[in-house]
C-alpha cells in the first residue's frame, strides 16, 4: 500500500455521540404533532439506526406513516436538530481533539457521513473543529450511498491514497465501494466482524517449527515448563486489562494448544492459557478502553477513575484463574484419564517432541522468527494503528504463505495444508452462524433494546447492595444477547446510569457491573465462547465441564466485589 495522504472519518460513533441531544430535540418536535402517536425517540433507538441514510431511519422509526409523511417529518426533525446540536453539542469521544491534532500534522482530514445537510456543520461549530477538517460530504447533499459520497470528496480534493475510518458494516462497505482501505473504530456503535483463522499456525505445526521450538524450550526450562502457564496467563491478562486486547489473540490459541499437548497436557490447558488469561484480564478491566473507557464516558465519570480498586480486582481474578488452570494442568499430567477431554478424538495434531533429537533446522528457525515478527507487528498495529480482525487475519495469512515457502512447501502443499487445517473449525463456524443470525434478528427487530429496558425495571430495591448485585446479574444476562463490549456499553449504560442514580448506587459501581457482566460471561455463554472452542478443538459440552466450576467461583467473586464497591463508592 502506498503512503497514506489523507483520512476520511465517519461522524456518529467515530468522532462523537449525539444520541442524547438528538433524542431531546426530536422529542420537542414530536410533542407538537398531535397526529403522530410516537412522542419520543430514545437513545437506544437512535443507536440502532447509526450508519443508515436519513430516510431509511425514518422508515425504521415511523413505519406506520406513509413514505411522504415520514420523509417530511424527518426533514423537519433534522432541521430543528441541526440548530439544537449547534448550540448544545454532543459527547466527543475520549482524546478526540488530541488525536486529530496529531493526525493533522501528517494527513489531511475529512468527514463523510450519511447525515442530513448541516449536521456535520453543527458538529464543527458546536465543538470548534474548523481547524482540523479540510472538507466534508454527506448524504443530505449528494443523496447517494456513502461509497459514492466518498468518491465525490476524493475526486474534489484530488486525494491519492486516502483511508476511511468508521464503526459500522455500512462504513466498511462504503470504503470497499470507494476502493480505499478501511480502519474499524471498534469503540463505536456498530460491529465489523470477519472469521478468525487458525490456518496460519497449522503450517508451523506441519513443517516442524513448533516441535523444534518447543523442544528447545523444554531443554532450556529444565523441568520447570509448568511455569509457562502463570507467566503467559499473566501476560495475556495484563494486555486484556490495560489495552483491551482480545480478538487479537485468536491466532495464538492453536499455538498454545500445540505447546500444551507437547508438554503432556490436554488441548484445554494450552487454549485456556490464552483464552481464560485474556478474557479474565479484559473483564477485570483496569484501563481497558473498549469496556471501562466507553462505559465511564457514557456514565459521565472521570476516565480511568477508580483504577486502584479495579487493580485489586484484576489481581484477585487473574490469580484465581491462574490457580485453577495450573491445578487442572497438574491433575491432567499426572492422571490423563481425569481430563475432561478423555476419550474425545483429537482434532489437533500435537507437535511431536517425544521422538525429536532436538534438532532445530535453519528453516524452522526462520519460520519461528517470522511468526514472532508477525506477533510484534500485530501488537504494534492494534495499539498504534487501530488494526482489527481484517488486518489480523491478513497478517496471519501472509505469514502462513511465507512460512510455507520458507519451510520448503510447494504452492500445492500450502493449499492442501490450508484445507486440512479448516476441518477442526467447521462445526464451530456453523454454530457461530446460527447464533449470530439470532442476535442480528433481535437487533434489527429492536428486541434487544426491549429486553434491556424490561430487565432494568427489576432493579429498584431499597437495599443498595441488592440493587448493585442485580445490575451485575442483569449485565451477565444481557451479554448472552449482546456479545460486543462496545455495543453492550452503548446500549446498557444510558439506561443503567440513571437507574443507578435512582436506586442510590454509585455510577462507578454501575460501570463495574457492566465490565464484569460483559467480560466474564464471554467465557461461558455459547454465543461468545463457541469460536474459541473451535480454535481449541474442544467440544462445547467438554468446555462447560472444565469452565463451570471456575465460572461459579468468578460469579461469587464478582458478587463480593460489586457489593464491596457500594461501600467503597458511597
Structure, explained:
- The protein is mainly alpha-helical.
- It has 3 domains: 1-192, HAD superfamily/HAD-like (Rossmann fold, 3-Layer(aba) Sandwich); 199-297 and 304-424, no CATH class; 429-568, no CATH class.
- It contains 26 helices and 7 strands.
- Helix 8 crosses helix 9 (169-178) and helix 13 (250-262) packs across helix 14 (267-283).
- Residues 194-203 and 349-358 have low confidence and may be disordered.
**SSE class:** mainly alpha
Q: Please tally the β strands and state the result.
A: 7
* Overall radius of gyration: 25 Å
Tell me the distance between the termini. 53 Å
Q: Which descriptor suits the 3D outline?
A: globular
What is the residue-mean pLDDT, rounded to a whole number? 78
Oligomeric state of this protein: single chain
Q: Unreliable runs, pLDDT <50, ≥5 residues?
A: 194-203, 349-358
User: How many domains comprise the coordinates?
Assistant: 3
- Tally of helical runs: 26
Proportion of residues in β-strands:
under 5%
Helix coverage percent = 55-70%
Q: Strand order across the biggest sheet?
A: 5-4-1-6-7
Amino acid at each position: 500500500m502506498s503512503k497514506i495522504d489523507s483520512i476520511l472519518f465517519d461522524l456518529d460513533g467515530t468522532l462523537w455521540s449525539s444520541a442524547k441531544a438528538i433524542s431531546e430535540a426530536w422529542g420537542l418536535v414530536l410533542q407538537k404533532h398531535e397526529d403522530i402517536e410516537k412522542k419520543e425517540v430514545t437513545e437506544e433507538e437512535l443507536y440502532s439506526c447509526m450508519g443508515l441514510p436519513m430516510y431509511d431511519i425514518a422508515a425504521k422509526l415511523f413505519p406506520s406513516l406513509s413514505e411522504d409523511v415520514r420523509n417530511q417529518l424527518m426533514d423537519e426533525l433534522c432541521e430543528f436538530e441541526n440548530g439544537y446540536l449547534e448550540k448544545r453539542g454532543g459527547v466527543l469521544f475520549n482524546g478526540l481533539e488530541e488525536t486529530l491534532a496529531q493526525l493533522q500534522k501528517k494527513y489531511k482530514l475529512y468527514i463523510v457521513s450519511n447525515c442530513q445537510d448541516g449536521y456535520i456543520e453543527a458538529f464543527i461549530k458546536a465543538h470548534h473543529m474548523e481547524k482540523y477538517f479540510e472538507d466534508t460530504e454527506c448524504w443530505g447533499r449528494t443523496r447517494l450511498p456513502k461509497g459514492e459520497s466518498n468518491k465525490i470528496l476524493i475526486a474534489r480534493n484530488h486525494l491519492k491514497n486516502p483511508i476511511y475510518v468508521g464503526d459500522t458494516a455500512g462504513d466498511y462497505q462504503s470504503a470497499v465501494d470507494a476502493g480505499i482501505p478501511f480502519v474499524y473504530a471498534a469503540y463505536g456503535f456498530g460491529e465489523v466482524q470477519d472469521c478468525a483463522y487458525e490456518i496460519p499456525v497449522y503450517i508451523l505445526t506441519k513443517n516442524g517449527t513448533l516441535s523444534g521450538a518447543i523442544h528447545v524450550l523444554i531443554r532450556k526450562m529444565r523441568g520447570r515448563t509448568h511455569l509457562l502457564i502463570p507467566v503467559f496467563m499473566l501476560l495475556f491478562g495484563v494486555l486484556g486489562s490495560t489495552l483491551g486486547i482480545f480478538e487479537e489473540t485468536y491466532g495464538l490459541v492453536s499455538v498454545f494448544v500445540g505447546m500444551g499437548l507437547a508438554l503432556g497436557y490436554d488441548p484445554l490447558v494450552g487454549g485456556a492459557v490464552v483464552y481464560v488469561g485474556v478474557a479474565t484480564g479484559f473483564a477485570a478491566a483496569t484501563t481497558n478502553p473498549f469496556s471501562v473507557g466507553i462505559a465511564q464516558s457514557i456514565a459521565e465519570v472521570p476516565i480511568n477513575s477508580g483504577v486502584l480498586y479495579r487493580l485489586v480486582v484484576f489481581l484477585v481474578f487473574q490469580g484465581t484463574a491462574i490457580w485453577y488452570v495450573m491445578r487442572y494442568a497438574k491433575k491432567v499430567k499426572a492422571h490423563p484419564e481425569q481430563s475432561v477431554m478423555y476419550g474425545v478424538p483429537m482434532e489437533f495434531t500435537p507437535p511431536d517432541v517425544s521422538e525429536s533429537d532436538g534438532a532445530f533446522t535453519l528453516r524452522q528457525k526462520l519460520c519461528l522468527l517470522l511468526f514472532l515478527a508477525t506477533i510484534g507487528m500485530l501488537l504494534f498495529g492494534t495499539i498504534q494503528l487501530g488494526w482489527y480482525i481484517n488486518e489480523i487475519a491478513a497478517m496471519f495469512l501472509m505469514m502462513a504463505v511465507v512460512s510455507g515457502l520458507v519451510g520448503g512447501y510447494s504452492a500445492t502443499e500450502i493449499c492442501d495444508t490450508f484445507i486440512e487445517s479448516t476441518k477442526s473449525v467447521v462445526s464451530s463456524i456453523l454454530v457461530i452462524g446460527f447464533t449470530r443470525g439470532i442476535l442480528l434478528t433481535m437487533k434489527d427487530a429492536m428486541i434487544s433494546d426491549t429486553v434491556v429496558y424490561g430487565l432494568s425495571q427489576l432493579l429498584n430495591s431499597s437495599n443498595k447492595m441488592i440493587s448493585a448485585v442485580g445490575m451485575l446479574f442483569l449485565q451477565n444476562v444481557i451479554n448472552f444477547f449482546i456479545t460486543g463490549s462496545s455495543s453492550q456499553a452503548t446500549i446498557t449504560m444510558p439506561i443503567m446510569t440513571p437507574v443507578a442514580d435512582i436506586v442510590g448506587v454509585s455510577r462507578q459501581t454501575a460501570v463495574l457491573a457492566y465490565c464484569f457482566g460483559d467480560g466474564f460471561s464471554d467465557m461461558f455463554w455459547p454465543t461468545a465462547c463457541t469460536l474459541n472452542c473451535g480454535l481449541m478443538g474442544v467440544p462445547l459440552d467438554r468446555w462447560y465441564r472444565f469452565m463451570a466450576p471456575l465460572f461459579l467461583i468468578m460469579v461469587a467473586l464478582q458478587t463480593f466485589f460489586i457489593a464491596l464497591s457500594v461501600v467503597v463508592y458511597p
